[in-house]
Every structure is written in C-alpha cells, then in structure tokens.
Amino acid sequence: MNSNRLSGSTSPYLQAHADNPVHWHPWGPEPFAEARERGVPVLVSVGYATCHWCHVMAAESFMDPETAALINDNMVAVKVDREQHPDVDAYYLQAAVALSGQGGWPMTVFTDAEGRPFFADTYFPPVPKQGRPSFRQVLEAVSRTWSDERARVDELTVRLNEAIEASGEEDGAEASWAAQDVTAELPTRIVQKMRASEHPTGGFGGAPKFPPSAAVLGLVRWAERTNSDAARTEVLDIVGRTMAALLQGGLVDPVDGGFHRYCVDENWTVPHFEKTLYDNALLLRALAAYSARRPDDALVAEALELTRSFLTRGLGTGVPGLLASGLDADTVVDGTRVEGYTYTWEPGELESLGLSGEGDVDGRVVLTRREGLPLSPELREALRQARSSRPRPAVDGKVVTAWNAMAAVALTEAGDPESGAAVTTALWNHAVTTDAGGSIVDVVRCTGSPQAPGTLEDCAWLLLALVRLWEHQGSCSDTVEIPAAVSELVRHIQVTFHRGPGTWYDAAAPVAGTGVRPRDPYDGATPTAVAVLSEALSMAGTVATSLDDADVRAVGARWSAEARRILDAHVDVVDRHLAQAGGWLCALECHLAGPVQATVAGATPSQVSALRTRLGTSCLVLSVEQGARLLGTSDSAGAAVVQMCRAGVCGVPTALGDDGPLH
C-alpha cells in the first residue's frame, strides 16, 4: 500500500509527519511484515514532538518529494515517538552508540525485517555539511549495501543484536548474601564520588549541562541521615551551589515557571528551550527536599513555587488531574519555526526594566540573574505582559503514565498533596484496566494509537505515587481502594517484568523480532526504573508494616525484602558508575535507613503540616485514625501524640505541639 499511515495517530510527533510524502507506518508488526514480503530494509526514524532537530530534519528531508521517493521505493519507513515507546528507543539508541559513537534525536536507524539494526546515527543534513553526508547519500548507500553486500549486512545484524542482548544480561547479577555488606557501603561511596566530581560551574560535568535532579535528591537524603554535622553541611553546600547555578542562569524560566531541558554551555546560560513534564517533576522533588533543609534560600523558594504552578497550570489537559508531556522548543513566527523565541528577549527590553541578559540566540538574549535575587512580583508581571503578545510554543498533549506519576509524587512532597492526589487518582482511572474482580489486565504508557504498552518505569512510578496517596489519605481515596491497588500493582509488576531475584526487565516484551527485552540499570534523563521500583517497594513496605492489620504487615515485609534484593543485585552496576548513580542513591537511602516514619494520633492538619516541614520530604507521616498503630502508650492523655521510627527503631509516643514533638 502506498500511503502515509500516521493520520490516525494520537501522538503529536507522528501527527506532525502525517502530511509527509514518505509512506510512514507507526510502530508495530505490520511494517516489518511488509519489509519481509518486499525483501527490503526498514528505516526506523525516532524522535519526539518537542525536539528542535527532529523538526529541522522533517522540513529538510521528509517533506522533500525526491527524498521521499528514495525511501518509498527502497525500504519500509517507520516513525517512532520515543516517549510512547521508550523500550524501542533504548534498544536502537544502544545500536546508534555502538555503530556511530553517538546517540540523540532525531535517530536514524536501518534494520532488517526482524528489526535488527545494521546502520544507526542521528541527524543528517539535506546536503553534505561539516563532514557529514547528506541524508540522500545515506539512503543510496544503504540501498546499495543491502542489495550488493547482503551477507555482510546479515552477519552485522546478528552480531550487533547478540551484543545488545548480552549487555543487558551482564548488568546486574542475582541477589546474594555476599552483596549485603557492600550494599550498605554504597551510599557513602556514591557521595564521595559526587563530591570529587563537582564541576566548578555547578553540577557534575561539563557542557552540555543537564540538571542532576536525582543526584541532588539523593545527596539531600544522605545529608538527612548522616550523624556528622560537618559532612551534612558540606553536602548541602554542594547541592546549594548546583541549585544557584541552575537558578541564576538560563535553565529556569523565572517569568512563567518551569525549567528547560538543558544548557548548551558550561555556565548554564543558553538552554535548549523545550520544557518537559519529567524534568520539571524531578526538579520539583529535588527543590522541595533541599528547601526543607535550607528554607531561607529565596531563589529556591521562588523556583519551588513557580515550578509547582507550571505543572498544575502550564501543563494541564482537558482531563482534570492529567498533565501534558511538555512544551515545544520552537515557536512558529510568521510561518517559520524559531527556537526559543517565546523565552528570549531583545536586549533593550530587559535593560528598560533594569535586568540583564546573556547569550546570543539569533540576536536575542536569555534572561539571567547572576546576582542571585528573585524577581519582584512587579517585575515578573511586567515581563509577563511583554511576553503575552508573542506566539506560544506548541503543547505535546499526550499523557505519559510515568511522567504524570512523577508529578504526583513531586507535588505531594512539595506540600501540595491535594494536587498530587488528583493526578494519581485520575492516572489510575486513565492508564489501568482491571477486570470485575479488581485484577489488573493492563497498564498503558499512554492511551491512543499506536498502542503504547506500559513499561517498568510507568508501573514503578505509579506505585510510588499510590504509596504517597496511601500515606496522605489512608486506605481509601475517592475512587481507589489504595492498599488493594498497591498490592495488585506489585503483582502485575512481578508477572510482567520480573527476570530473576532482584532483577527486572524494562519492557514487557522483546523489541520487534529481535528477541531482546531492554534492560537498563543506569540513570538517563530519568532515574533507572529498577531503582525507582526499589524505592517504591521500600516505602510501600514501611507503610504496610505500620498498620494494625497483621496480614497487611506480612505483605509489607515481603515488599521490603524485595526492595533489598534489588539493591543487592545491582551492587556492581552502581559501583561502576558512582557519579551517575543519583537514582540508586535515592533508593539506597530510602531502604537502608528507611524513611523517617512518624505516627500521629489526634493531630490537627496544621500540626501534621508542621511535622512534615520539620522532617523533610522523604518522611512518611501516618495516622492512627487511618489505620496506623502506636507501639506503647503515651502519658499525654487527650493530647495529640507522635511516635518517631526509623530503621525499625521507635521512640516512645510523645506529645505533639504546633511545631513538632515537645520532647
């Protein structure tokens, strides 16, 4: 069939290519079957809606009739939204790095009819430029090689596929007793490596500068646990320097809130302007944790409030509680896509308000605040008025389960449990299908077409969001029986993703006909899913074992044990990449010391809020009124009481004042 098949897709990225003359297929078995029937290779083009260079390559090559004819005549074309299919993206990204030495988007991959790659790279220009061939030259070379050197292509696809499969199986042994002592030492080793890796301009590496959200959260959690005041101060100072660098440069939008994806320079000046839900959710978590320890940091307090508002107002969808995936890097100005136009300024615009800008983005500058001062409400309103007349970037409105769950967790930890609960309950109803008995039939990554099955990342973050909902609302929210939902989701994860003791696959099935189930235990743009699963199981176990119900306590103990097995099984993985182990540091701190657990009885909402502020964002505050139990008795008859526990050790119940425990 000679046609473009993307018009029925619900992915904004695929919709943007629906008018291409290329005969695109969405991801699925059909294009590979057609390639097998025709005896031709498959072009797999991977990108996402807010990607600037994806739009560039689309305009330059995929809209060109001659280029499209080369594709249509010699191969089958598949367009993949990497945010819908992270397992597909992960598999081909490994291939791109192995074959070209680089990975990124747009990603250009050529495969056989089983989906096994033999050529993979990123962006190609329409004409040869800066040592790179044109895309048409690549297409012609691939077609010749497929026709004239098929045996060599077949050998390469087999060898590369075997190497990718082997790399996934090597990372992470099964849990063992021998690993347990090493596991306990890991947090300090990670922190020592991060200390040594701190960059002079903030963060833990050079340009491009990505915000180290998981590392910041992990460092704050380590600082909360250490008994050394000097070490605590040193580590919080590292976090403070990173936060100052992020917030004084161009990464943050101090006008409408939200963070951009990354900065292209070492000084955090010029960003790549897309705003993603996952970046902002993860940064909100980190900001909330640090702000609880350094509440006098005015720039952090400003960013915390603006980011929280950006999530709930700037990324809203037509469905209450559900959040969009992000905002485009580009703005369409007079029919032309211009990167960052909405967020950049003419130098005179800022000077007239006594503000400064840096960088050069097509003659425009980026607002920076190197003096470290928040904007006054009057200045922010003036900037909003100036910006209001500009066109706005497009919204990627698809609802991704993992990223919405990240936002639910972040909003709850940032002091807005009502918004967190709204996201969690809406997401459960949106992404989870159950049968009449309440058993989970399916969890999706995002609804619509093409089908996007749920991944371990989706389920792990949803589990953590449910645990936070359980903590704040007890056993039952408006539409979800929370303990039953948590237990059933754990069962679904076990059946769908389990590999061996302590180890898990990221996807429910292999990629196409490759036989490879992606499994990546390393942090990327988001923390590795298996570390998030460990954190979620640790938190679920802590909540469950605090309850009066003996059966629930027994199940909670099993969840905690599985969390520990995950940590023990990945000791070597973490040890090889200590400076990039932020997600693992969060999970380790959560499990080895356990979150601070405060059980209250007779407490007012204001007393509970003050207690949370004092204990930090990693704590769990449970109430007797919602099924938690106090161990022992209190002398404070008739008064509000609290019992503090950590790592299985509990103090005696004591009177709870307006600012925390009285003793």
Automatic annotation (TrEMBL):
Residues 4-164 form the Spermatogenesis-associated protein 20-like TRX domain. It comes from Corynebacterium glyciniphilum AJ 3170. InterPro entries: 6-hairpin_glycosidase_sf, Ssp411, Ssp411-like_TRX, Thioredoxin-like_sf. It comes from the Bacteria. This is Spermatogenesis-associated protein 20-like TRX domain-containing protein. One of its GO terms (biological process) is carbohydrate metabolic process.
